[in-house]
Write a structure and sequence with these properties.
The structure holds two protein chains of two kinds. By secondary structure, chain A is mainly alpha-helical. Chain A has 14 helices and no strands. Chain B is built from nine helices and ten strands. In chain B, helix 3 packs across helix 4. The chains are: A mainly alpha, B alpha/beta.
Chain lengths: ~240, ~240
Amino acid sequence: MSQITPIFKREFLGYFRSPVAYVFLVVFLMASVGLAFFIGQFFRANQASLESYFSFHPWLFLFLIPAVGMRLWSEEKRTGTIELLFTLPLTTLDAVAGKFLAAWAFLSVAILLSFPMAITVGYLGDPDWGVISSSYLGSILMAGSYLGVCSLTSALTKNQVISFVLSVLACLILVFLGWSVFNGALSAVLPVWAVDLVANFSFVTHFDAFTKGIIDPKDVIFFLSLTGFTLFLNVVALER
Amino acid sequence: MIEVKGLVKHYGLKRAVDNISFTVNRGEILGFLGPNGAGKSTTMKMITGFLQPTAGTVIVNGHDVTREPVAVKQQLGYLPESAPAYGEMTVEEFLTFIAETRGFRGREEKAQRINRALELTHLQSVRAQTIETLSKGYKQRVGFAQALLHNPPVLILDEPTDGLDPNQKNEVRTLIKSMAAEKAVILSTHILEEVEALCTRVIIISQGKVVVDETPAQLRARQPGARLDEIFRTLTHSDV
């Protein structure tokens, strides 16, 4: 397991060795904050909360996390460095975990860089810091699950475009299952328990509780187990 | 030191490697010859544990590659074909990463290992340059430095002189020869003179099978007076 550290270090610093990190951070912050201001009516809502900021995360992650995740393995396969990586004395799990944790840490940095929003809200009003903290936690956990899916699709192909499209599609399904509009349409044909069952597989359903300040163990377990499961499949896909 | 036992690799219906067995002892430099697609690289990838053999196994210094891949990888230095490396890293950053995954974590030991590898491969002048900006010859040497860093008892080199100019080729050959006494070396090549100049033994494979396993002198004696490439052609003509 100690072999995770060098992989993590290389991957995490790797983001900052190329323009990828800076482009991503700028786009992520502009998009997330822009959505909160212009579509989420951050000011007009006249509330000291970040709800309008976090409510767009499931949709924003849909495109931005595949952009980070698509290169995780496809790039290694395309350039042939995967051969180098897997002839070093480490297990597939070390490599998968190291890469995943580095990308997750990078995404967490991106999410946490919105802290001026929190400071603004704190300066202008009296927000519920518990809700803000749980929202950040939920957002980071959800990012991990998205990333797990993207890392898996990336391991399936050496083409980054295919990897991107596949991961957007997979994440789209996981978001749609819990989208209120979709559930509304579904409840016309299915009984309530079936709609609930379907909705329970969605990112949105489990993320919503966090944005209301509720840290329910079952939501935490959902994100962590989805992440764990996709990473397990990732290892299987690479060892096949 | 290296014992290859009945290696078989199937790609779908195609038998890329068909029951190959040989051993290489310390002090030997084994030249691996064969037309493109004969299974040279596939065999080498199975020895390094990058590919799983369909049948058979490889024992390196007493460790079975199918059962203890990590232990085998610790014994090996591997230069993959066309020397892949992380292009966005500098030579020094890259070698630091390799040193850390090879278990050299102490600052002093790490620096010493890296400096020695840079020295052996004459890379000191470009140590701070990113790998993607280097010429092919330098990239090849970075691959070499990476393979030699931990002073492994076994070296697997896939076309180590490919793409180098005559001076560089000569330099690489001298380097391999100087290390050969205490190591077991397998190298693949297309250059027949290289085999004569460097190798203590030759294996020619054709269509996944070993057709020749003898010394370069014995190979030459097969058709006295003929050029090596003529002998090579007679032995492998069934591939054309």
